[in-house]
Structure formats: structure tokens, C-alpha cells
Amino acid sequence: MSTSAPARSHLHTAGTRFGGAAVRLALPALAIGAGAGLAAIVFRWLIEHATWVFSGHPDYAATTGHPANPWVPWLGGGFVVLAPIVGGLLYGPLIHRFAREARGHGVPEVMYAVARNGGRIRGSVAVVKALASAICIGAGGSVGREGPIIQIGSALGSTIGRWVRMPEARLKTLVACGAAAGISATFNAPVAGVFFALELLLRDFTPTSFGAVAIASVTAALVGRAAFGDTAFLHLPAIGGITPPEYLLFALLGLVAGAVGIGFTRVLYLVEDACDLLWKATRGPEWARPVVGGALLGVLLLALPQMYGVGYPVLERGVAGQYALGFLAVLVVGKVLATSLTLGIGGSGGVFAPSLFIGAMTGAAFGEVAAVVDPALRGQVAAFAVVGMGAVFAGSTRAPITAGIMLFELTGDYALVLPVVVAVVIATAVSKELSRDTVYTLKLSRRGVDLTDSAIPARRLSGATAGSAARGLGGVLPVTATAAEALAALESGGGAPVVVVGVDGRLAGVVSARSAGDAVLSDVDFADRPVLDVASDVRPVPGATGLDAVVQDVVDAADTAGLPVVDGDGRPVGWLGQADALRALVPAK
Question: Rounded to two decimals, what is the model's pTM?
């Protein structure tokens, strides 16, 4: 069947409107990926040189014993008490004066920007975050570099998106591109970077978002590999084959790791609360908080120098089985306290790497205990440590897809994929049972910002129904209409969803911009096919239903940005968009 000229015109318009979004995002995503990759290189350089200045070593955690700083040899190992104080004297005023949102671990601020601020992040945040985090980590702050690079990349994505005047929805995607690119370049993990952005930030796996984020992540990985090489991020010992009975132990490790992940989250914010309370009692200036608190951190580093900085060398030793069971337990507790204290006093750095560290030590300790029970497992400590890394990360962030993929890319060992999946799924389930929030969302929840359930207010509305909140129907087409007519109706309605009704007048489907765009991209020559080929099946909302009972379903209807409202006979009588529901839920004062 040939396609008519008007139909081809409508197809061209629809393809430009719906399919062209990916093309319009491609070039900015490419630029963001390259920029974030370069930013990751510069950021790592800053950390290395800050560490050299403050400790006299490329990575103090890689040293053995408690060596002195060659710049101040008369202090011996005691220089670690002064390093956080001097560092706080530098980054405290920097954050307070130029970008207070650069304080902390960064990812919650990006999540807030995507969910509540239209993807807008000040460009100055990237510069301040890079400098403050590099100084904090170099001066002994026991935090990670991944959270900062996520915020740096996201700020770059937001800046570029606003510069090219992207609409809000696309701006959020570009922010996610920056986050994915930062993870990709830092860890040499492009796939994990993609899923981190989609799973935690956008919560959106549409083809357009996936394509743009993937372009940025791959580009950043290529830039990072040019500087750091194309090798696995972590250098781990060879891990033997996994026998079926061991999966029961990995499942048990998942239970333990889920609880540890939530425990880490609770202690983190408990220490932050204690620091807030104590600092308010002193009535000191906020910029001086890292200076005073740095003394406490320094004492902890004096007792446990393995907590200095990010700590990847210590992590690798733990995975290699170089630490005894008792010391592994000390490292777990020490890292939880050191990270919590670093952030509680106003430091700048991520919780991504600390969660991996805590997970590795937890898994290694679990493996040591298992080896005591069954000496045949003595050589599997590394396997338990790696699985523990993913499980604790999943337990604290509740991002199981990212955790599973991340561990495979970090280690390059396919043999551990199935054990990691088992432990990660169980750890995520345990985490969800123990806490409503994650290590990222709890920071926002404490500020009254709820991202766990689309932030729908819980209060009920007396008398408000879906029918009373709905607006009139836009385009309505019979089931006998063609796909070309549906595209024309979408175009004339400015992209508003078009309702399709059957011969009996009942709802048969909804044609949305997304369903039409996907159809156009998958089959260009389909204009004369039935309209239902481009329609989506949706669950309508009965008009007499209370609004508070259906508002969550309306907000979750991302493909159609709302749901049709039907009468008692199933005939569409209105359209309840997301804005309509929220407007009725929170009426204007």
C-alpha cells in the first residue's frame, strides 16, 4: 500500500519532532562526555598533588606503617593531626563564600536539581567542588572522589544545556549525561555510568535518554582511557570458580551487607546531627567548622592512618586477604566513622568509594569467618570481598542494576557476576525493609524534600474526585482512524495525547508523543496502518474516584503525562494530566 503525500508530510513532521530529540541531544551529550572526561583527569591530578602537598606521598594510604611527611619530618606521623586542620582552613571559606552546595557528598544535590529544580545547577559549583574536594581528600578527608565528579559533570551538563537553550526535560537528561560521564571516566566503567544516571537520577529508561547518556558515557570513557589506560580500575587477585553451595553463603552475605549499608547511612547522618548540634552551641562561623572539626578527624587518622584519603590501596589489600579478621572489623568501623566525621564537619567528598570500601572489608571478614567454618573456602576471601562491595553499595544506595554492572567493570571478572547479582538483590530487599530512604535520599528527606514516592503529599482531599480535577478532552479519534491521522492530531494539539475510542464509545487506547515517536522510528512506512498500532494501552481513571487515591498513578504515567478519565460505562469524559492532579491537590492560595 502506498503512502499518500499528506501522510508522508505528517510522518516527516512527527519524525522531526519525536525522533529528532535524540539527534538534538547527541552533540551536547558528546561535548559533555568529552568535558567531563577532561574534568575527571584534572580532578584526579588535583587530588594527587593535594595529597603530595599535605602528606608528602602520592597516596598516603598506600604507605606502610605511619611514615612522616618529608616536608615536616620533625612531626613524625603526627602530621596527620594537623593536615585536616590546615585543609579545613582552605576549603571551609572556599565553600562558604562561593558555593555552599559544594559541601557534602554531592549526589543528593544533583538529584534535587533533576527532580525539583529543572536540571539547573550553577556552573561555579563545578569549580568549587573540584577544588574543595581535592583539598579535603588530599588533607586526609576519608571520602571518595566519585561523588564530586558526579556533581562536577552534572554542573557541566546543566551549563551546556542552558547555553544551547534546551527545554527543561532535555536539560535534565544532559545533567544525567554529565553524571554518567563522570562515573565512566573515573572508574573506566561506561556501562555502569549509564545505569547510574538512569537508575538514580533520571529514573527513566526511554530510548532518547538512554542514547544521550550512553554517548556521553562512552565519550568520557575514551577520554579517560587515553589518560589512565584501558585496564580494570581495581587490581585484584585471581578468583577461583564458584561452586553451587557457595551461593547460599553469598545470599547470606547479601543479608548482612544490606544491614551494613543501612547502618552506614544511619551513622553518617547521626554524626552529622551531632556535629550540627555541637557547632551551634559554639556559635562559631560556619566557614571555621572544618578547621575545628579537622582536629577530631586528625586524631582518628593518627589512630588509624589507613583511613587517610580515598583508601583504594587499603581496599585492594583487604580483598587480597592481607588483613586478619579482627583488623577487618576495625577497618569497617573506622571507615564508617572517618567518612561520617569528614562530612559531618563540613567536608566535601563522596560516599560512593567509602561504601565500596566498607563492603570489601565486610565481605572479606565474612569470607574469613566462612573459612574458619569450612577451610576449603580459605582461597575465596577475595570473592566474598568483591561481592560484599556490590552488596553494601546496593544496600546503601538501593541501585541494584548499577551495583551489579559496576562490580563487573571494576574487576573485569565475569565469574563473579552471578554471585554479585544474588547478593545485590537480597541486600536491596533488606535495605528497603529496614529504611524508607537511601544514603542519598535521606539527606533530602531531612530537608523536607521527598523523592522516594514522587513527593506526593499524603493528606487526603475531602470531596475532590478525578472527574472534578480533569480538564476537557483534546483530540479524539475512532478506532477506524489511521496512524497518519493520529500524528496529525498530535501535531495540531501541540503534542497533547489523543484518545482513541471504539465503536461503542469506550476507551480503546491513547496516542502519546512517545508512543508515536517510537513507532515512527521503528517503521517509517506505516501511515495507513490502524491508529491502534501507535496507541498505548493505559488504565483509565473512573471519574468518581477520589483524587487522592489515583494521583500517584497519574504522576507515574510518564509516557502519557496523565491518564484519561472515564464515566461508569468506560467512555472517556476528560483528561487528568499530572499538572491538573497536583494543582487540585495543592490549590493556589
Answer: 0.75
